[in-house]
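Exam prep: given the inputs below (a chain plus adenosine-5'-triphosphate), describe the expected output before reading on.
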Amino acid sequence: MNSLWVSPVMPDYDSARATFSWRRERSRLAGLPDGGVNIGYEAVDRHLRAGHGEHVALCCVARDGSVRTMTFARLAAESSRFAHVLGTLGLERGERVFTLLGRRSELYATVLGTLRAGRVLCPLSTGSGAEPVALRMKAGNARALVTTREQYERKVAPIRSRLPHLRHVLLLDPGADPPADTLSFPALTRAAPDEYTVAPTDPAEPALLQFTSGTTGAPKGAIHEHEAVLAHHVTAAYALDLHEGDVFWCTADPGWVTGMSYGIIAPLTHGVTTVVDEGDFSPARWYGILANQRVTVWYTTPAALRMLMRAAPRGGDPSPAVRHDLSALRFVASAGEPLAAEAVLWGREALGVPVHDTWWQTETGAVMIANFAADPVRPGSMGRPLPGVEAGVLACGEDGRAAVTGGHVRVLREPGAQGELALRAGWPSMFRGYLHEPHRYEASFADGWYLTGDLVSRDGDGWYWFVGRADDVIRSAGHLIGPFEVESVLREHPAVAEAGVIGRPDRLAGAIVKAFVLPRPECPPDPELRRDVMAFARRRLGPAVAPREIEFVDDLPRTRGGKVMRRLLRAREPGLPEGDLGTPETTAPAGTAETSGRPAEREP
Ligand code: ATP
Ligand code: MG
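Solution:
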């Protein structure tokens, strides 16, 4: 495909919005032959029925750079085998299969086999330590786990006795002398038939349990139904501009919602080829994949983009787009945390295309707000709500969350007004519950709106701008300050590698802006640097918003996806209320492998 000459899926936003209906979009799905909807069926079976079984579904790039491909027919066969295994093992409909796997073809076979069999899939990240893994498996009543021997021995075997619900552990590489109480994934799947009739799942049947990132507290388990696939499919077209024939690469960790909704489900439902990178991040590797696999649509994260920017700053000559042949790349998008305007502009220079910000959450299941292919990107803006998604800015009360009076909320319509971002309940991938927390689920809705917990403003043209998470926003001497804005500016200082910003309680101002700054390795963190960074921030942000205090650190607590865990920074401050840490069991403390590290050492 000549990527430059593809017209956007949605050429005109206003008319698409005006005529959109989820009911009509339903015809884009195949649906089960006897009624009902199944995510796995939409991802593989429909393509076989349509005669596209020989199309390449997965293009797996091994650590050593060698490439193996897997067709839709083969993926259907492998996932069929796994679906049969679940039956043989006695897993009931609705019981949960957990994965603790990096990106590899067996992950896809497991996920699709589980969904096609009407069991529920819960993906965990291999970046999580033993405690977070145990906690999620316990909370989710994991019946079966698919993982590698190394992950099992390190994280699960030592706590297996604490997981009474866990009946079966399937190892991809059990070896000649397998650990006790484990089964061989290859042996079981080899022995199973390679055809499977998809379970007759109802659209409202649970399909996925997806844990949130745990940025603001203990991770919550969000429950999604098979019907969510309609939103996965439609949003991949509208927000990611996915076309037939595309080569799509989503870099998100499979344990995170982006890695599931867009790393696995959405591209497969479109029948496009998905790149599966089995290796670790390095700029050379990633540019190599973009170039050699002729990636046309790339979905990544601000954390990854920051690392690439650091390796090849703006104005560098020649740019990565010249050094590597990125001419196939047509559309780049990012999700998960705010995308700095700088990153959008960097994309234009370094990749040859701007980066399109998209906003969503584990709870929303799919992208809700985006910069679309047909529109010029507004650097720094999250974009506009997708067709079929009604968003609103709600007036907040004293606690910084939407004020609900007599069951009603107040929608702010003046351009620029700040408030809590809310979404009209009812889109197909809306979560249907928080695991074991019905009250928290109920409290997330008011007056027909789902309350997101994020503060935003909307400009006169209807574009949304991220201010901060309600939990993170700093109220200082009458100003409402989003920490991200301050962090972005600090990161632009040549000596600053990373920054995390919080409000430190202050008797007079309410809070003062405090920055934790990770200097670049070659820059000594001395008083002169502190003064220089402070002055830089003041010039750029003004004295009311610039940090009043800077503390140099040698790590920043982050989630696996690269988000700064400001609650852990706050917890480092004396005088802050206890309980801000969340349940200690759920969160690896700052400085451990799961949550921190210099960015260049971690896979984003
Ligand atoms: P937890 O809910 O456990 O605290 P989390 O909110 O980080 O963790 P996710 O569901 O992975 O878990 O992330 C969703 C959140 O990420 C959003 O609510 C928002 O705060 C942030 N986010 C996602 N995309 C964007 C974006 N494009 N711009 C700004 N923030 C974003
Ligand atoms: Mg959240």
